[in-house]
Amino acid sequence: MTDKPFSVNEALRFARHDFLNQLQLIKMNIDLARLEEAKAAIDHYTSEVKAIYELTKLNIPFTSEWLQTANWRFLGFQFNITSHIETSCNESLDEQIYNVLDQATNLLHNQLDPFVEQQLHIHIVSIPSEFRITFEATGQWESIAQEISCEPQVTLTHECKTTKKWRFHIEESKEG
């Protein structure tokens, strides 16, 4: 895990490495005559890329960068991003959303059980009537007593916070 931003060179190196790993998995499945698995891998990677491209519609660059590079900074998690984005987000929320996501992931990452698979799913909904980011982690970690510092323009709604699942929503605050 690193707190410093990635240089363009580092980001490209990570992206190329990930891309080559994906190609190797597809090639291996083809070599083993497992064409359905190869097709499924292609479909999976295609949907991942589409989700990343969708982030540009939000117009929140810090948060978008965090989402695109989190899997390189928090190696204990398998990241999954899904979205339904029709409209951009209030740009003034960008740094606050970034801070909440980063705080929560750091708190959790520091408590992970290294022998258990850890999943982190981020789902984004941005439509004219609603903006919401759902953070859902599953796996195994030590209890987290510390709370996330609340940002003034965003509201956090916790659904579940145990040692095996943590789920909350980030929404634009309705209060003044």
From TrEMBL:
Which positions fall inside the SpoOB alpha-helical domain? Answer: 8-55
- The reply to whether NAD figures as a keyword in the UniProt entry is no
UniProt key word Transferase: yes
Q: Enumerate the UniProt keywords alphabetically.
A: Kinase, Phosphoprotein, Transferase
Q: Name one GO molecular function term.
A: phosphorelay sensor kinase activity
**Which protein are we looking at?**
SpoOB alpha-helical domain-containing protein
